[in-house]
Design a protein that fits this description.
399 residues, alpha/beta, 4-stranded mixed beta sheet, 12 helices
């Protein structure tokens, strides 16, 4: 069948008609255990009753009014996010890339508002992924994503992750801030050490820079804390959120302190759809569940159980699994075969996962996943590994 969709994605030949919790049902009726969660978006799984009720109720009342008027649902969500974080103010957008665009503009504008308009450059890190706009691609700096789009947007200085001396050397008279993911999800589920993040905080304080965290993937419970920065003991000045915040509905957010946001006055930034009533209803519903007593405690217990079981699988299939990485329910398996082959083998066992950089396969179950479902996933993983180990060697391979 001819598709009129732009072929920008290498899609699996698989489509789903409905979901419930950690499960998806394909159009042919087959059930799949979803450890992709829409790439860390469906934090509460599929068709969570509280989110469904909140979105349905809002649809019947009001979808969109624009930011020409007050949006009470957005004011409430912003207040709640500030209550549980370092932030004093929130800007709502539609995606992670837009949240990062706001973050980049805020870091630059802060320096201009502080009397330093020449300070616009931002230090970023090799292997990072911040989005697909021209600015966020430049921030990520990956050549494969930048090729063919003309001159790369100026203003980003990339250094190796975890090299504090390289960061020191990169700071110059035009440096405005530092942008980093506390865990590099797309970059291979690489956890950035607390000591390195603390070093970045000290450098920012010393040189008058803003420290910005990209928590698009780590935010809203994914690491076992509400925000990834909370497990590091290091507080940023600006933070980008998206993915899990809407539980499946498109939403992005840029959180900041009053000082960091001082240059973002009326007219400096905007979004037609950002913060509309429907998105805000979804975001508030997600927070209702994630902030309920005991929810994050359960995520932490579940993540420990998952890591323990994965350690067993790694030992059993050491020829295929080199390392288990990550925090909370953001887990990566560094594998010894091409990650696409590993993802395909898991999908054949009706377990959905997603690839990442550094030949890593990500496991991103919804935060509501049960220990029984994790045990089920481990059995599927075990079978997939066994099948891969027992497959005949490729023709022409050395015996």
């Amino acid at each position: 069948m001819t598709s009129h969709l732009l072929p920008a994605y290498a899609r699996a030949d698989l489509a789903f008609e409905r979901g419930e919790g950690a499960w998806l049902v394909a159009t042919d009726g087959e059930r799949y255990l979803d450890f992709t969660s829409g790439v860390a978006v469906n934090a509460l799984g599929h068709a969570h009753p509280h989110v469904v009720q909140a979105v349905q109720a809002q649809v019947a009342k009001l979808l969109h009014v624009s930011n020409l008027f007050r949006i009470p649902e957005g004011e409430r969500l912003a207040e709640r996010l500030c209550e549980v974080s370092f932030a004093d103010t929130v800007f709502f957008a539609n995606s992670g890339a837009e949240a990062l665009e706001a973050t980049i503009k805020m870091v630059r504008k802060y320096q201009s508002a502080s009397g330093n308009p020449d300070r616009y450059r931002i230090i970023t890190f090799e292997g990072a992924f911040h989005g697909r706009t021209l600015a966020t691609l430049a921030a990520g700096g990956q050549k494969k994503n930048l090729e063919g789009f003309g001159p790369v947007m100026d203003g980003f200085d990339q250094v190796p992750a975890a090299d504090i001396e390289a960061v020191k050397r990169a700071i110059g008279p035009q440096t405005a801030g530092i942008l980093i993911e506390p865990i590099m999800g797309e970059g291979g589920v690489r956890t950035i050490s607390q000591a390195f993040l603390k070093g970045l905080r000290e450098l920012c304080d010393k040189h008058g820079l803003l420290l910005a965290f990209d928590e698009v993937q780590t935010g809203i419970g994914r690491t076992g804390e509400l925000f990834g920065y909370q497990r590091t003991g290091v507080t940023p000045d600006v933070m980008a959120l998206a993915k899990a915040l809407g539980g499946g509905f498109p939403i992005g957010a840029c959180l900041a302190t009053t000082e960091a946001a001082k240059g973002m006055t009326a007219g400096t930034h905007g979004s037609t759809f950002g913060g509309n009533p429907l998105a805000m209803a979804a975001g508030n519903a997600v927070l209702d569940v994630v902030l309920a007593p005991g929810f994050l405690d359960r995520v932490r217990r579940t993540s420990i159980f998952l890591k323990q079981r994965l350690a067993e699988i790694k030992d059993r299939h050491a020829s295929l699994i080199e390392e288990v990485r990550g925090e909370g329910l953001l887990i990566g398996l560094k594998v010894t075969i091409p990650y696409g082959e590993f993802v395909d083998a898991l999908r054949a066992e009706k377990l959905l996962t997603v690839a990442a950089g550094d030949n890593v396969v990500r496991l991103l179950p919804p935060l509501i996943v049960t220990e029984a479902e994790i045990a089920d996933a481990i059995e599927r993983l075990d079978r997939a590994c066994t099948a891969l180990e027992n497959r005949p060697p490729k023709q022409g391979a050395a015996g």
